[in-house]
């Protein structure tokens, strides 16, 4: 049943993003930023972790999870290290994903030539 929950929740997140693109006429960058902020707000309100528990990868894979990770890491580290923990928590939680994105983008740029 977890697969069905993941499919439905992930699909709803994608539908919301598509509606923002089509109806609200937002650019892809604005849509992505909006979804990250929504994920951050949901985590701040304590709503995103129950969603992850319910939907698994359906909630932890989409871009909204990045906002969740930023806030979750900042709040956790702020509780342990004080104000400086806000910054270190953000970098600690997201560093692996950002580092891998940079490395794989660099490798793709080396392997493939753009047309034009």
From TrEMBL:
Pfam hit, one: SpoVAC_SpoVAEB
Keyword Membrane appears in the UniProt entry: yes
Stored InterPro entries: Spore_V_AE (IPR014204), SpoVA (IPR005562)
Spans through the membrane: 6-24, 83-112
Keyword list, A-Z: Membrane, Transmembrane, Transmembrane helix
Domain of life: Bacteria
NCBIfam families hit by this protein: spore_V_AE
Protein name in UniProt: Stage V sporulation protein AE
Organism listed in the record: Salipaludibacillus keqinensis
């Amino acid at each position: 049943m977890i697969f069905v929950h993941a499919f439905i929740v992930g699909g709803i997140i994608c539908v919301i993003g598509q509606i923002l693109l089509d109806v609200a006429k937002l650019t892809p960058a604005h849509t992505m930023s909006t979804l990250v902020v929504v994920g951050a707000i949901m985590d701040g309100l304590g709503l995103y972790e129950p969603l992850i528990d319910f939907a698994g990868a359906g909630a932890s894979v989409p871009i909204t999870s990045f906002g969740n990770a930023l806030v979750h890491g900042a709040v956790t580290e702020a509780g342990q290290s004080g104000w400086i923990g806000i910054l270190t928590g953000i970098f600690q939680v997201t560093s692996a994903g950002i580092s891998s994105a940079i490395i794989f983008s660099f490798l793709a740029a080396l392997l493939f030539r753009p047309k034009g």
